[in-house]
Structure formats: structure tokens, C-alpha cells
Design a protein that fits this description.
410 residues, 10 helices, alpha/beta, six-stranded mixed beta sheet, 22% strand
């Protein structure tokens, strides 16, 4: 039996409303070190979005590589497999490959082709058990850019979508090319993309597929795979079948992820028998919603903050993040200044303020409400409203496809 720790969406270098997440990343990386030893992990998979930016700072790169070296030293025989996500620059991620391979770390970026044929060998990573015998493989595939899916054509069975057909064809081609090298051993497949039916996190995940396609069905992945390790969506969840899973991110990356149980997924493969276990990771700092449910009046905010019982001298990087939910009734136009005045007396970091919307409505009145900032409005709703104003009718699927493509490329 082999044990693979599935992780994704580290987003090293992220800031949340200007607040650094470095302290939290250091803490969760320390917990990862403990997990790989406690669970005697044979392979660690990072399914994309290693960095938060395609041009990460020197500090973010140092943080990542220090973490990888510590993980390797904690469990020296463990193979680490990293694939590029849509937030990563694949070439930058692959650049230190010769150095990383000395620590048994394999980085896989974009699909490359020569004479129209995939250079498939770089995508196949052998995994060895505790006794040193080859026991499985990881078929590592990064975020599918347009260059990864050349000559897209419409194929029957894919709802007329060339992108879905292209993704399906990419995985099928890789498997057909590499099957003979797998010696009949089980394999884990990676993917960094949105699979239809997955729960998104507002404000943290872009609709990323090329060609304006928002999501692919779970059946694009070959059923021969023992497990499909997905990245991109930050909530841990299975899609379509139990063996197709998002591990979720290590920490909340937006205020809407406050309810999530962040962590990693331990996958155990014993021949045809595959089991998965979600391992929660405690948050290095609290992420609070005030109030815990429903909404409150602005005059109640001070009482809620006092009830937290926080030490007034908490260092900035240990102060809890706070999402504030306010009732609309009686809310003054200058309420944001009042929030700043109240919260400056408490050791908290306010990262999101939401004003209750009118139940059952999402119309022009709500969208143009002066109490709601532009950043708090859903871009798709704004597009639909503008389209209806201009053309007197709701946008169709083709219009929304163009909108999502433009939004993804912005």
C-alpha cells in the first residue's frame, strides 16, 4: 500500500486586504511536516496554484523553497510532485528543476509537443513504497492553457464544446502514450481546473478555462485512474465520484471561505482498493464572522468585538480576520467610517463587510445601492444588467462565454 498526501492551492505570497499571510503559511507548512511523518507518506502532490502570483516576490519564493526542503528532510524517501496552476508561471516554477530533483521533487509545467506529439515522459512520476519498490505512478498534468490544447475541434458527446473535447483528448492522449510504461501499476492523475458541480469561493477563484468554457464534466478524466487529485477550488469536496476530489486550500483565501474545513487529503492505494481521508489543519489565526449567523446593527459591533475577549497587545500577524455582516435597516451612509472608528480599538483585521440584501431580489435597485461597493457586486450580475439596458434582453450563453473569457484574461 502507498500513501499519497493530496494538497493544492497554497497561494504562497498572498495578501488579504493588504495583510500578509506569511505567518499562516509558515505555521501550516510546519503542520504539513508533522503529517508526512505521522502518516508515513510516500508522495506529496501539490495540484497547482503554488504561488498567488505569476511574478512572486523573492520572499514568497524563499518561503516556498524553504518549506519544500524542510518537507524533504522530514520524510527523505517521499516523492514530491508539483504542477502549475492558473496563478503560476509554469516556466518560472520549472526553472529550478535540476536543484529540486536533488530533493526528489518533480515540477511539471505546461504540456510540450514535438512534431505534434506530446513529450509525455515528463508527466509520469514513479512512486515507491516504504520498501523501495515501485508501487504506483502520478500522471501529473498542470492547468490546461490554450497552448496545451492545440487544434481544438468540436467532438460529439461534449455539448459542442471544443474546450471540453480538448481537455478530454489531452488526458486520453497522455494515458495512451504512457500506459505501456506504467507496468499495470495504479496511478493518480492530477488536474487544475474547474469541474462542473464544484462549489466556488466568491472573490478567490477565477473562471479559468480557455475558450470561455467555465467548467468540464468529471468524466473527462479516464476512469482507469485510481484517484484524481484536483486543484483550483478551495473547498475540499468530491465531484461526480468519490475518487475525483479537490483537497481544498490550506488556509482560507477569502472571507467567503470562513466556514470551510481547510486541510489536506490522505489517499491510500492498495491495488484496486482506494480510500481517502480529509485531514483538517487548524487555522494559525482565527477567521471570524460577526455575528456568527444573521446580521447585526452597526451599534452592536462594539459589543460583539468586546465579547471576543482578545488580548489588546496581540501582534498584527496573530490578530483574527473578521467578516462583518450588517443589517440594512437604519444603516447610515457613512457607516464604513464608523466601522473603522470602532474597530481601531480592537486587535482585529477587518477583511470584509457585507450589507444584507433585500430577500429574493437581485435587481437594478440592489445593484445600484450606494451602500454596496463595486467590489462587493458580482461582475456577472453587473454584466447582465448592462446587457439588458443596452439590448433590452438577457444575454445568451454565447454572450456569457465571451464575458467569462474576458474576465479570466483580465
Amino acid at each position: 500500500m502507498i500513501r499519497i498526501l493530496h494538497t493544492a492551492d497554497w497561494h504562497v505570497g498572498q495578501t488579504l486586504r493588504g495583510f500578509s499571510r506569511e505567518h499562516e503559511h509558515r505555521k501550516v507548512f510546519g503542520r504539513l511536516e508533522e503529517i508526512v511523518v505521522e502518516r508515513n507518506v510516500d508522495a506529496l502532490v501539490v495540484a497547482g496554484d503554488v504561488f498567488d502570483s505569476q511574478n512572486p516576490s523573492g520572499e514568497a519564493q524563499q518561503l516556498l523553497y524553504n518549506a519544500l526542503v524542510r518537507l524533504s528532510r522530514a520524510q527523505p524517501r517521499m516523492t514530491v510532485v508539483i504542477v502549475a496552476g492558473n496563478h503560476d508561471a509554469a516556466g518560472r516554477l520549472e526553472a529550478p528543476r535540476p536543484l529540486l530533483e536533488a530533493f526528489n521533487i518533480r515540477v511539471v509545467g505546461n504540456v510540450r509537443r514535438r512534431d505534434r506529439r506530446i513529450e509525455a515522459a515528463q508527466h509520469l512520476v514513479p512512486i515507491f513504497d516504504a520498501g523501495g519498490a515501485m508501487a504506483a505512478h502520478v500522471l501529473a498534468v498542470s492547468y490546461p492553457t490554450a497552448a496545451c490544447l492545440p487544434n481544438l475541434t468540436r467532438l460529439d458527446g461534449d455539448s459542442g464544446s471544443p474546450v471540453i473535447a480538448g481537455v478530454r483528448s489531452l488526458y486520453a492522449e497522455l494515458l495512451d502514450t504512457l500506459r505501456g510504461q506504467m507496468d499495470g501499476l495504479p496511478f493518480v492523475l492530477t488536474g487544475h481546473l474547474h469541474v462542473a458541480g464544484g462549489i466556488e469561493s466568491e472573490g478567490a477563484e477565477r473562471r479559468i478555462l480557455v475558450g470561455g468554457q467555465h467548467a468540464v464534466p468529471h468524466d473527462v478524466f479516464p476512469t482507469e485512474a485510481s484517484y484524481v487529485a484536483l486543484g483550483h477550488l478551495h473547498k475540499a469536496q468530491a465531484i461526480g465520484r468519490d475518487s475525483v476530489r479537490y483537497s481544498g486550500s490550506l488556509i482560507p483565501l477569502s472571507a467567503t471561505e470562513q466556514p470551510y474545513a481547510h486541510g489536506v487529503t490522505l489517499v491510500s492505494v492498495d491495488g484496486a482498493q482506494v480510500t481517502s481521508e480529509h485531514i483538517p489543519i487548524d487555522r494559525p489565526v482565527p477567521f471570524l464572522r460577526l455575528p456568527e449567523s444573521g446580521d447585526m446593527r452597526l451599534t452592536e459591533l462594539g459589543d460583539h468585538l468586546t465579547a471576543l475577549g482578545l488580548q489588546p497587545d496581540l501582534p498584527i500577524n496573530e490578530r483574527p480576520f473578521v467578516q462583518i455582516r450588517l443589517a440594512r435597516n437604519g444603516l447610515p451612509s457613512g457607516f464604513r467610517e464608523e466601522i473603522d472608528r470602532i474597530t481601531e480599538n480592537f486587535p482585529v483585521r477587518v477583511v470584509d463587510t457585507r450589507v444584507a440584501t433585500i430577500p429574493g431580489t437581485l435587481n437594478e435597485t440592489v445593484l445600484t445601492d450606494p451602500l454596496i461597493r463595486l467590489a462587493e457586486r458580482d461582475p456577472e450580475d453587473m454584466f447582465k444588467l448592462a446587457f439588458e439596458r443596452e439590448f433590452g434582453a438577457a444575454p445568451g450563453v454565447a454572450h456569457l462565454d465571451v464575458f467569462h473569457r474576458a474576465r479570466a484574461e483580465a
